[in-house]
Every structure is written in structure tokens, then in C-alpha cells.
Amino acid sequence: MSTREIAVIGSGRIGRAWAIVFARSGFTVKIHDASREMLSGAIPAIRESVEDLASFGLIDESVDRIVGRIEACDTLAEAVANADLVQENIAEIVDVKRAMFAELDRLTKPEALLASSTSGLPASTFTEGLEGRARCLVAHPVNPPSLVPLVELCGTPWTSQETLQRARALYEEAGQSPVTVNREISGFLLNRIQGAVLDEALSLYEQGYASAADLDTVMRDGLAMRWSFMGPFETIDLNAPGGVADYASRYGGTYRSIADTRVPFSWSEEAIASLHAQRREQLPADQIEARSRWRDRRLMALLAHRRAEKNKND
């Protein structure tokens, strides 16, 4: 188990989930939030989530032992003073992040990694003027990182290779699945791929080809069945006897013709209002939070299944 220390800045859902990720892997975690109210609720909420993980057999220690590694800190300085990694989870506003990273650069030890959980802002937009800018990067998780292991690591033109290598090793040690984005791009990898799928689904809905519920079924009971355990490249590699080249030979023309007829979604108010109305027929607004908890428990069940399969094959 690690004896290193992690600072988590921001105690909302992402910050709390990151605290769980690191604490269950043996790291000492210090969490801080500028809001006293948010901070005071962080540890109880974390305990509840860890108890859920325990109910699915997804932790290897007691709840008390894991939660006991997490300490709420009233000041930023206290939280980051001895951190080997700072995981920032504050508002997606460039000026706010720039001010935060200036403080982190000043308050942390020189070798500490400074990572942002931003889902779309390149780190170059808020770290350029820092003395320690070579140690700054984006570590973009999927919500919640305690249940979805992917983390996208993206440096800036001035981020050192050592920083990226150290970060990748640390997130792997924490049980995550890091990938490296080789250069900055808006939205990084996951949101661009998700955006492409979402754009086509919304466009098909707007054009009247199917209901929202049926398009969700296409993904849930179609594409997602394979994509839950293999990626799109492996999927097509296995879908033709001769692999990727054979698949491209057989179906490339079809996909080219599909691309020629694609209509990008305009994000029109009318289409969004219609989609919102269909979703509210299926799920009243006052049930969204309960359904979100249901989603998280389904993710836990999937993780438990994957863990069991891995243990059988090891």
C-alpha cells in the first residue's frame, strides 16, 4: 500500500470520488473546499459511497480503514503542503483555475504533480505563467472516477515527459486506467468520441427517425453490449474474418455513404425541448437523483462482474 499523500481540491461529486479512488488504494488523502458547508458534508458522503462499494465486494479493506485515510482540511495550505499529487476539481472557469494553480504552484513542494480534472479546458490556458508549469497537466476523469476507471492525461507544450510518466504510474497505482493524449485538443478524447455519438443520436431524433427511448435502446442493447468490454477498433477487428483491413474493404463504402448523408445536430431549442419532454415522460424530474443512484449501483454491479471475471482468469 502507498504511503504517499494526495490533495483533493473541491469536495463536490468528482472530488469526493477522487478521494475514494486514492484512499482505497492506500494513499493518504487531504480534501479541501472553499465552501465550509461542502467540506463538512464531504466525509459523511464519502463514507456512504464506500459503504455502497463494500456491499458489492469492491473494496479489500474495511470502510473505516479507507475513510480513515481521508482528512478534511480547512485551509488550502494545509491540504497541499505535503502532497505528491494535487487533484483540482473547481469551477470550469479559466480565471478561477489560473488563480488556483498560481496558489498551488506557490504552496506545494516543487516535485508535486499539479493535475486538473477539467473536462474541456486545456491546461495551457491556466498554467503558462507559472514557475512550475512543467509539472502541470490535465487528468480528466469520467464521472464518477471511483466507478469508471478511465483518466485522460494531457500535458501542455511545456509539461515535461517526466511529469506525464510519473502521473501515469501514479494513476495506475491508484487502480485507474490512464491514457495519454499526445497533444492538447478541445474536449480531449472521451468527450470528442462521446460528442460524435451524441451528435448523431440527436440528429436522428431531430429528423424524426426514432424516438428518444428507441435511440437509447440502440445504444444500451446494441453498441454498448460490446463496447462495455472492448473498444471500437477491437470491435471491427473481430467483425470481419480478416480483421480491420477486411472490415474496411467490406463496409468502408457504406460508412462513406453514411458520412455523406449526415446532418449535424444544430442544438435547436425546439429539438431539445421535445427531447426533454420525452425524457420527463419516462423519468419525472423529482426521480432524477434516485435514478442517478441506481445508475451508480449498476456500475458497481458491472465492476464486481469484471473483477470476478479477472480473478477467474488470473
Observed structural traits:
314 residues; alpha/beta; Rossmann fold; N-(1-d-carboxylethyl)-l-norvaline Dehydrogenase, domain 2; 2 domains; eight-stranded mixed beta sheet
Describe the structure.
By secondary structure, this protein is α/β, with parallel strands linked by helices. Strand 1 (5-9), helix 1 (13-24) and strand 2 form a beta-alpha-beta unit. It contains 13 helices and eight strands. The longest helix is centred in the last third of the chain and has 26 residues, at 288-313. The chain folds into two domains: 5-181, Rossmann fold (3-Layer(aba) Sandwich), CATH 3.40.50.720; 190-282, N-(1-d-carboxylethyl)-l-norvaline Dehydrogenase, domain 2 (Orthogonal Bundle). The chain has helices at residues 13-24, 36-55, 63-67, 76-80, 94-107, 124-127, 161-173, 190-206, 212-227, 232-238, 244-261, 269-282, 288-313; strands spanning 5-9, 28-32, 70-73, 85-88, 113-116, 136-141, 150-154, 177-181. Helix content is 54%, strand content 12%. Helix 1 (13-24) crosses helix 2 and helix 10 (232-238) crosses helix 11. The model has no long low-confidence stretch (mean pLDDT 96). An eight-stranded mixed beta sheet has the order 3-2-1-4-5-6-7-8, sandwiched between helices.
**Might you state the CATH topology name of the largest domain?**
Rossmann fold
The ordered H/E elements are EHEHHEHEHEHEEHEHHHHHH
How many distinct beta strands?
8
Over the alpha carbons, how many angstroms does the gyration radius reach?
21 Å
Largest sheet: 8 strands, mixed
Structural class by SSE content: alpha/beta
Top-tier CATH class of the largest domain: Alpha Beta
- Backbone shape: globular
At the fourth CATH level, what is the homologous superfamily of the largest domain? NAD(P)-binding Rossmann-like Domain
Strand order in the largest sheet: 3-2-1-4-5-6-7-8
